[in-house]
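Section 5: illustrative case.
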């Protein structure tokens, strides 16, 4: 009789299959729960730059370019208009104060001068003749008064004798009256002569005053026109370098037109252009430095031009100490303009990473040195060498400072 064999439930194959399934599920669960879900990228260690986070003295400054120029430039403007008759000097020459640079010709001005000069001579002669006539009138009055006084004395004697003769009945009353009338007439004539002379004298003196005032005004006009003629000679107001003469012989020049300039080479300044981003932080007295001929020299801002052109504004800086030897007009200086005092700060070197992250995050190298993890940070001020770290990094840590192109969406960089 056949014996029924009981089928085994736990065969080796079944156990193996179950074990494999459990292991597979466990692996899936492990990766789902415990494994690193962040994206990572393998990078070659020789293609990245790593720098250490340090703590030390930090000073914010910006590099700017400055051009050396004379501290004083005098514009040469024509005071009077005219045609260029002669050029005595050309641009680029050294001049001394008072040197003649140009001579202009202006016929109208010359004619005005001749006309005023003629008028002056006429008034001078007229004044002299009037004064001479006044003096002659005074002499003529004296002569007439002398004659009248003689005639009055004679008439008075005849009148007084006639009065006695009339009393003695020697002469008639009519003869006496005739003598009296002759005497009274001469006395009245003398009074009229004196009054007439006083009037003539006052009138002549008034004429003299008017002529004198007219002559004075004419002389002032003549002096002014002569000064205008002198202005046809354009001369150097200061000693220095005649940088340009922008006219040619025969050219017509208008009054007020610029014909060149003179640079005072006894002192220099530096004019720098700065990005408008810093305009609120720039003020008079702000210091800067530059290296020249192996030495460091100090500058200080003394004038700010607030007008912004193409995103830039300008400032003038003066040399704090002695002017550097061999410095020349037009020379370009690399200036470090200091925006803050020295402070103790955590900092990292500048790098290409900033163009990608904007300073909001970096890859921090693990202590093992095998990989770097993404970490959020906050940066503050900066200078051409370092960024100030406000939070997110500690001194001694290392960060990747090279370009992050292609790493924007990665959380981990694994070094190979």
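Designed sequence:
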């Amino acid at each position: 009789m056949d014996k029924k064999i009981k089928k085994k439930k736990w065969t080796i194959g079944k156990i193996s299959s179950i074990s494999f399934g459990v292991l597979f599920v466990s692996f899936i669960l492990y990766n789902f729960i415990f494994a690193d879900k962040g994206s990572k990228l393998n990078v070659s260690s020789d293609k990245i730059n790593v720098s250490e986070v340090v703590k030390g003295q930090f000073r914010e400054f910006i590099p700017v370019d400055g051009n050396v120029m004379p501290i004083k430039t005098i514009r040469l403007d024509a005071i009077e208009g005219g045609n260029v008759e002669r050029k005595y000097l050309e641009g680029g020459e050294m001049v001394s104060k008072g040197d003649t640079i140009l001579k202009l010709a202006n016929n109208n001005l010359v004619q005005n001068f001749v006309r005023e000069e003629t008028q002056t001579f006429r008034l001078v002669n007229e004044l002299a003749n009037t004064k001479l006539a006044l003096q002659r009138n005074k002499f003529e009055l004296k002569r007439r008064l002398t004659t009248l006084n003689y005639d009055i004395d004679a008439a008075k004697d005849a009148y007084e004798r006639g009065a006695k003769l009339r009393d003695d009945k020697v002469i008639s009353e009519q003869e006496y009256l005739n003598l009296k009338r002759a005497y009274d007439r001469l006395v009245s004539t003398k009074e009229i002569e004196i009054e007439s002379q006083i009037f003539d004298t006052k009138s002549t003196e008034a004429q003299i005053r008017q002529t004198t005032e007219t002559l004075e005004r004419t002389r002032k006009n003549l002096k002014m026109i002569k000064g205008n003629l002198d202005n046809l000679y354009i001369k150097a107001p200061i000693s220095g370098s005649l940088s340009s003469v922008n006219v040619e012989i025969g050219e017509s020049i208008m009054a007020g037109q610029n014909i060149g300039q003179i640079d005072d080479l006894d002192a220099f300044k530096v004019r720098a252009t700065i990005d408008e981003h810093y305009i609120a932080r720039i003020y008079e007295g702000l210091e800067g430095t530059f290296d020249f001929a192996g030495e460091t020299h100090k500058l200080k801002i003394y004038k700010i031009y607030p007008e912004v052109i193409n995103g830039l504004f300008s400032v003038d800086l003066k040399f704090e100490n002695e002017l550097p030897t061999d410095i020349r007009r037009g020379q370009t200086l690399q200036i470090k303009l200091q925006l803050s005092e020295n402070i103790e700060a955590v900092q990292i070197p500048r790098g290409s990473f900033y163009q990608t992250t904007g300073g909001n995050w970096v890859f921090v190298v693990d202590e093992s040195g095998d990989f770097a993890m993404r970490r959020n940070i906050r940066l503050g001020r900066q200078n051409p060498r370092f960024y100030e770290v406000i939070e997110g990094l500690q001194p001694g840590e290392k960060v990747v400072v090279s370009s992050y192109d292609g790493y924007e969406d990665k959380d981990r960089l694994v070094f190979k």
